[in-house]
């Protein structure tokens, strides 16, 4: 009885020693890790210059609101030194109304191939875009459809498209006005974050 | 007493060496493991940092048109893969539902959902080590941001780029580290064996000396001492041992001296008594012869004096014999004799042959001191005749290299409580018979004589009543017996 107890104590002691000796040895080779953050994401200039594209906002298959550039042919308007981007004097082909109209038309073939799409509640009616009034820090978008029936993603699409069309950084409040009245002014949910200069 | 299993199973040397090796092993393994871990992290971190930095650089240089066009993007991914650093990687791009890679499959099996989710939701790049099918990969995920206008802020472009880089080189490096750690630890352990043995030796040498000294003291050499070295606990032990040994030697010497004085006194007294006794014996002999001419009362007194004087002379002779035994001055005068013949001569010399039945097998020859053997037999038979009852039997036999002499009487036997003391000096088995005919030294002298021959004597009561004395004497003399006797005869 006593001998057995001693034997048990001895076994426990040996086990403890083995654990002590074995602990540093565990984890030989390369271990798996979780995801480790690796600093800032890479920043590139993936969008064409502002004076040759419309910036539309479509949803990815993962329900992510993505800025999608669409190149447009812009007729030469000003003389040398006058840029269309300055002073908010955008040419008609780059106006917020054009952008909203293009958005309501839905993604083109190339964009559809990349899986981009409109929010389901956004009707595919290009003519629904009536007019866009830009004034100060707000934009009013008049739509020929019931805006209150639009879901939040659909409103977001229109708001962002109009905001980025009217302002380079999208820094404007957008009011949607439709057949059933207006909505409260809203900001685009996708705001640019400061990026390091090249 | 508590004896742990290890202590019982191994000697001190083994335990010391094991303890040393264990300490060395723990040290070596810990050091090796810590070094290994540091070196491994260094190797991995260098590879990871290089890969993440160069991949980010490549990605920032990569300017595809949006939305992605599969064919044109693939060629650019080949370019990024061609500039892999530090090891070749495969690039995977995801945009919307577009999946394209620089490898043969558009989607990687190594990338985890965890990394893909992190790249999609977090505003940071990220990497993850993945072990798949026993091979390690570094996977990097980068969500590409795009500036809205040149020099302005950036928004997520929806483009995700992943790199999958096998870490085969790092695995080889780390395996080399393990091998190096193992190859370094084993010689270290072997080297630790040397100090372990030295330490065990330094502890065990005093212990061995102590053991030898204790054994030597137990053998009677009380002057044994240990050399004291150093000032440690072992030296303290040796010092204590030495002082104890000195005290013990002193006490034993005092006892020996006292014993020797007592023996010398007894011997001197016997000697001094012998001379006047010889004179008295001569006078009483003369008086005895003339007793018939004296008046009866005087004659009885004279005869009593004569008998008592003779008894006193016998007692003094026995005392002197005992003194010789005590002084170890008694020697053996051996001769090869016929045992039966010797016993017969003893019986006939005392006119006992009619009163004693003898069973004496012929032809048993033994080397012994005839005079002392005569004393042994005569004392035993005389004892049997005086204290026991007839018939008395003397029987010789031989067994296992010893001559066995048995003397049996038919008396009442020896009282059980007297049996252990029967061979003591002046021990009277029958307290009532305080004045016996013997000196009280007969059995003691018998025992001394038997011992002198290297034999044994024992007394017992037979089942049929009567005492039985058994003497065993070795055939080849006292030389074959234990050390105490050889010391005594020396």
Give a description of the structure.
The complex is a heterodimer of chains A (198) and B (490). By secondary structure, chain A is α+β, with helices and mostly antiparallel strands. Chain A has a domain at 53-71 and 90-187. Chain A is 26% helix and 21% strand. Chain A has helices at residues 2-22, 96-105, 109-113, 152-166; strands spanning 36-37, 43-44, 53-59, 65-71, 129-135, 138-143, 173-178, 181-182, 186-187. In chain A, a hairpin with a 2-residue loop joins strand 5 (129-135) and strand 6. Chain B is rod-shaped and about 170 Å long. Chain B has three domains: 6-175, Beta-Lactamase, CATH 3.30.450; 234-326, Signal transduction histidine kinase, dimerisation/phosphotransfer (DHp) domain (Helix Hairpins, Orthogonal Bundle); 335-489, Histidine kinase-like ATPase, C-terminal domain (Heat Shock Protein 90, 2-Layer Sandwich). Chain B contains eleven helices and twelve strands. Chains A and B meet through helix 1, strand 1, strand 2, strand 4 and helix 3 of A and helix 2, helix 4, strand 3, strand 4 and strand 5 of B.
- Per DSSP E runs of 2 or more residues, the count of β-strands of chain B stands at 12
CATH topology of the largest domain in chain B: Beta-Lactamase
Strand content of chain B: 15-25%
What characterizes the major β-sheet of chain B? 5 strands, antiparallel
């Amino acid at each position: 009885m006593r001998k057995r107890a001693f034997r048990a104590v001895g076994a426990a002691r040996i086990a403890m020693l083995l654990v002590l000796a074995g602990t540093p040895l565990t984890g030989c080779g390369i271990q798996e890790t979780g995801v480790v953050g690796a600093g800032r994401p890479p920043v590139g200039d993936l969008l064409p210059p502002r004076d040759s594209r419309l910036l539309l906002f479509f949803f990815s298959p993962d329900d992510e609101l993505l800025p999608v550039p669409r190149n447009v042919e812009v007729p030469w308007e000003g003389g040398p030194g006058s840029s269309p981007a300055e002073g908010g004097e955008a040419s008609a082909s780059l106006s917020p109304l054009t952008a909203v109209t293009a958005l309501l038309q839905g993604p083109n073939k190339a964009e559809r191939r990349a899986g981009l799409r409109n929010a389901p509640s956004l009707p595919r009616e290009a003519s629904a875009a009536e007019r866009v009034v830009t004034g100060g820090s707000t934009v009013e978008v008049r739509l020929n459809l019931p805006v209150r029936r639009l879901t939040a993603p659909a409103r977001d699409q229109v708001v962002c498209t109009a905001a980025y069309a009217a302002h380079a950084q999208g820094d404007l409040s957008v009011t949607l006005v439709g057949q059933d009245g207006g909505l409260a002014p809203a900001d685009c949910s996708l705001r640019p974050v400061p990026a390091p200069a090249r | 007493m508590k004896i742990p299993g290890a202590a019982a199973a191994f000697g001190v040397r083994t335990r010391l060496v094991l303890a040393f090796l264990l300490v060395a092993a723990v040290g070596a393994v810990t050091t090796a493991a810590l070094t290994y871990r540091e070196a491994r992290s260094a190797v991995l971190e260098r590879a990871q940092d290089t890969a993440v930095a160069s991949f980010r650089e490549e990605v920032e240089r990569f300017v595809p048109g949006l939305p992605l066009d599969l064919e044109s993007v693939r060629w650019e991914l080949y370019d990024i893969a061609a500039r892999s650093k530090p090891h070749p990687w495969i690039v995977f791009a995801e945009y919307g539902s577009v999946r394209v890679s620089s490898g043969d499959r558009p989607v990687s099996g190594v990338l985890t959902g965890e990394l893909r989710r992190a790249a999609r939701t977090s505003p940071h790049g990220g990497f993850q080590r993945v072990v798949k099918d026993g091979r390690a990969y570094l996977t990097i995920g980068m969500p590409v941001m795009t500036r809205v206008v040149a020099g302005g802020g950036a928004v997520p472009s929806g483009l995700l780029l992943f790199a999958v880089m096998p870490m085969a080189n790092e695995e080889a490096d780390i395996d080399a580290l393990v091998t190096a750690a193992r190859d370094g630890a084993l010689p270290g352990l072997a080297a630790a064996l040397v100090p372990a043995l030295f330490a065990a030796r330094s502890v065990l040498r005093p212990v061995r000396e102590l053991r030898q000294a204790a054994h030597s003291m137990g053998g009677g050499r009380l002057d044994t001492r240990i050399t004291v070295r150093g000032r440690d606990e072992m030296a303290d032990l040796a010092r204590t041992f030495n002082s104890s040994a000195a005290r013990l030697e002193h006490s034993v010497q005092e006892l020996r001296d006292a014993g020797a004085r007592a023996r010398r006194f007894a011997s001197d007294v016997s000697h001094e008594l012998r001379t006047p006794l010889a004179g008295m014996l001569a006078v009483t002999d003369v008086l005895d012869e003339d007793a018939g001419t004296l008046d009866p009362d005087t004659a009885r007194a004279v005869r009593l004096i004569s008998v008592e004087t003779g008894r006193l002379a016998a007692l003094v002779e026995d005392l002197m014999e005992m003194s010789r035994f005590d002084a170890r001055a008694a020697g053996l005068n051996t001769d090869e004799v016929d045992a039966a013949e010797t016993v017969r001569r003893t019986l006939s010399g005392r006119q006992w042959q009619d009163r004693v039945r003898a069973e004496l097998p012929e032809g048993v020859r033994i080397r012994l001191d005839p005079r002392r053997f005569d004393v042994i037999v005569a004392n035993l038979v005389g004892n049997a005749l005086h204290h026991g009852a007839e018939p008395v039997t003397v029987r010789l036999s031989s067994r296992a290299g010893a001559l066995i002499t048995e003397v049996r009487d038919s008396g009442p036997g020896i009282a059980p409580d007297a049996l252990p003391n029967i061979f003591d000096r002046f021990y009277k088995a029958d307290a009532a018979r305080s004045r016996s005919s013997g000196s009280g030294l007969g059995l003691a002298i018998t025992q001394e004589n038997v011992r002198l021959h290297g034999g044994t004597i024992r007394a017992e009561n037979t089942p049929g009543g009567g005492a039985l004395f058994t003497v065993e004497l070795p055939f080849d003399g006292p030389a074959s017996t234990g050390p105490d006797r050889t010391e005594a005869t020396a």
